[in-house]
Amino acid sequence: MKIYISDQISKQIRTNLPKDNVTYLNSSSITKADLKEIQVAWGYDHHVQSLLDTPHHQLKWIQSFSAGIDYFPKQQLTDQKITLTNTSGVHSEAIANTVLLYALYFMRDMNLALNMHRQKQWDGSRHYEELTLLSNKKWLIFGTGHIGQEIAREAKALGGYTTGVNHSGHAATNFDDTVADNAYSNIIQDADIIINILPLTPETTHMFDHQFFNQLEHLYLFINVGRGPSVDTSALMQALDDGHVKHAALDVFEEEPLTSDSPLWDYPQVLITPHNSAVSSEMLPGVQDVFIHNLQTFLKDGHPNTNIVDLTRGY
């Protein structure tokens, strides 16, 4: 059986893959003839797209390197009955750690501390009016899957109260409370921190728009570690200008990379990271484990069984 591995998968991972009755191909070894024989692809690039566009190909399953799958041609995969699996759960701890960093950065006024450090200034009195604690803060988390549950666990460990938003309002591990996605307006004013970790779907595109931010009066911190297009950037900037949102921490953006002329860079109350909240040195073994487990199941049963994406729902 032939398996294509995109270049985004490191050589470190490739060395530990099962080798019996399997031929692994990459961008430098794949040929036109291979396109009709590959059954599995790990990652997504122009070679995988060429494979999808090849008549009478044998591709049955694609394993994504990431949890988000909005960049995949979902309709084409649906039409061709190709299974897509992701790495949901692998990145949860790294993202949750990053979210806590964002919160602590502003609550401990590290922005001012770093500015004074650069200027070689010592003035502890300038901090007092801004310094606050994580304990007793109310977290409103949009998304109650693996990532949301890990954020809630870590927030609660530091004394936070966590409310999760999901489609039906069903209970979720580590959350003190949950509400349906059509009922959060009743509690949004009480939140200190709002976090988006939702996947990108037609329903979540520009979900955080002018109407959403206008419901807020004095939100302490808005965080986006979900998908950039879920947030209307102009609406967020207006909310920052109007004082509806005091701080924002953004790891994802409507257009990436964020251009140097983006007005977001000029907001001192905005913390920007380059879409790396999910990254850690421990990530690669977890990504590999998901693929190897699914590959072993595929070799045995003809299909993977873990982290299967619902292409209709988009996650």
TrEMBL record:
One of its GO terms (molecular function) is NAD binding. Its EC number is 1.1.1.95. The keyword Oxidoreductase applies. The keyword NAD applies. Belongs to the D-isomer specific 2-hydroxyacid dehydrogenase family. Residues 32-307 form the D-isomer specific 2-hydroxyacid dehydrogenase catalytic domain. CDD domains: PGDH_1 (cd12155). This is D-3-phosphoglycerate dehydrogenase. Keywords: NAD, Oxidoreductase. Signal peptide: none annotated. It comes from Pediococcus pentosaceus (strain ATCC 25745 / CCUG 21536 / LMG 10740 / 183-1w). PANTHER family: 2-HACID_DH_C DOMAIN-CONTAINING PROTEIN (PTHR43333), D-ISOMER SPECIFIC 2-HYDROXYACID DEHYDROGENASE NAD-BINDING DOMAIN-CONTAINING PROTEIN (PTHR43333:SF1). SUPFAM superfamilies: Formate/glycerate dehydrogenase catalytic domain-like, NAD(P)-binding Rossmann-fold domains. Residues 102-276 form the D-isomer specific 2-hydroxyacid dehydrogenase NAD-binding domain. The lineage of its organism: Bacteria, Bacillati, Bacillota, Bacilli, Lactobacillales. It comes from the Bacteria.
